[in-house]
Amino acid sequence: MSAINFAYTIVYVEDVGASLDFFERAFGLTRRFLHESGAYGELETGATTLSFARHDIARGNLGQDYRKAADGAPLGMEVGLSTPDVPAAYARALGAGAQGLTPPMTKPWGQVVAYLRCPDGTLVEICTPI
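Below the sequence we write its predicted structure tokens.
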């Protein structure tokens, strides 16, 4: 069997352009691509791509409905972003419109982590590299 690599995560959202804009302002990520239809976009995030697609695209791909990240409690998954300065990244994200969930704290193993929720409902962990 061939090796399998983690290629991308797609977050399904109402407004792809708005989600890309938030991640640019909140985390300093760079927009790689936004389709002219506004239905799909990607950010520069290294070897693994963080992408966004509209809900109608998701429904078409899945052939059924699903629970949106913006509805109710955060989904049981997160996008993890690492930085050496978690407090500064957390403050920047809050200033860009994120909802703070857990302010920066040091875990028993020494890693600093914080959790927030983006305007589109995506749960994000900001952490120092392990």
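The helical segments are 16-27, 55-62, 86-95.
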